[in-house]
Specification:
The chain is α+β, with helices and mostly antiparallel strands. It has a single domain, classed as 2-Layer Sandwich (YaeB-like fold), CATH 3.30.2310. The protein has two helices and five strands. Helix 1 packs antiparallel against helix 2. The radius of gyration is 13 Å and the shape is globular.
């Protein structure tokens, strides 16, 4: 069975996002967690999905979360390395 690793920086990003949603909107936070979990399941099954960013680093890919092109799951299969948001 394939697995997906979430690195320490990505885990820290998730904690910061969770803290934000606790203050702002629990419903939106729940939607974010659901979407993130679903994307992780897709990554295990389809490790080459998403946009390629090999010009930044070989094998690097990004996925949109919650329909926002500025929110990406950055991964180098089979790991989620960082969650970022460009504001």
């Amino acid at each position: 069975m394939k697995t997906l690793r979430i690195t320490l920086p990505a885990s820290q990003d998730l904690n910061a996002i969770s803290d934000y949603f606790l203050e702002q909107s629990i419903d939106a936070g729940e939607r974010f967690v659901e979407t993130f979990n679903q994307k992780c399941k897709y990554l295990v099954r389809y490790p080459y999905m998403g946009k390629s960013y090999t010009h930044l680093k070989p094998g690097l890919r990004g996925l949109s979360l919650m329909g926002e092109p500025s929110q990406k799951v950055w991964g180098h299969s089979p790991k989620v390395r960082r969650l970022i948001s460009k504001e």
